[in-house]
Amino acid sequence: MSGPFKRRPSLKTLPSMGMPSEAGLRRASIRRQSSVGLKTVPAAQQEVPWDMLDRCTLPVLFCHASAVILSNALNVLRISDVSTFTLFIWFTIVTIGAVLFYHNLKV
Which of 7, 28, 77, 104 lies at a 20 to 30 A Cα distance from 67? Predict the structure, then answer.
């Protein structure tokens, strides 16, 4: 760069301006965040054991509903004599695979 501009060594740290130590400043801001309810929780603690159950409940119910509807439609139209259980297992395997893939996707 040219001119009177100087580059800072790092933008991650604040320059010292005669303020109290940063540890005290950080402690106060953490206290303020927790009292307001804005305390951030690390990603490892956000995961709860029933998270996967919540993600899989509706897809499994929709798999069952679509298996019943498709099986009845195929049997009434005499296209195929497939059982509801077979379609349910097939739909569930595909859907749970997609849910687990999306759940473990890291962006």
Answer: 104
DSSP letter, residue 77: T
Reported as a single tens digit per residue, the pLDDT across 50-93 is 888 888 999 999 999 999 999 999 999 999 999 999 999 999 99
Give me the residue label for tokens 């759940």.
103
In the chain, alpha helices (H): 22-36, 43-46, 51-76, 84-103
Whose tokens are 């309810």? That residue is 37
CA-to-CA distance for 51 and 61, rounded, in angstroms? 16
Rounded to 10 deg, the angle between the 84-103 and 51-76 helix axes is: 150
